[in-house]
Design brief:
Shape: extended
Strand content: under 5%
Helix content: 55-70%
Number of strands: 0
Order of helices and strands: HHHH
Largest sheet: none
Structural class: mainly alpha
């Protein structure tokens, strides 16, 4: 294991399974071999609908709100 990719994969394997899956999806998307999209359930769609409606109306968080979220999580 000498390459940066080998080191990254070794580090990824130490993460919880759900994080490993997300890392794998990102890598596959980058190299163009992405898995098919995940199908949303009716409950998922109902949960997302208010946010999609806000986006359709052009209602987005302002810079101050986004900065506060970044600060909250130390980013």
């Amino acid at each position: 294991m000498g390459t940066l990719l080998d080191k990254a994969m070794l580090a990824a394997k130490q993460r919880p399974a759900d994080e490993q899956d997300e890392i794998a999806r990102i890598v596959l998307a980058i190299i163009g071999d992405e898995a098919p999209p995940v199908a949303l359930s009716a409950d998922d769609i109902a949960t997302l609908k208010p946010s999609l409606d806000q986006a359709a109306r052009g209602e987005f968080a302002g810079d101050a709100a986004v900065a506060e979220v970044w600060r909250k999580y130390g980013l």
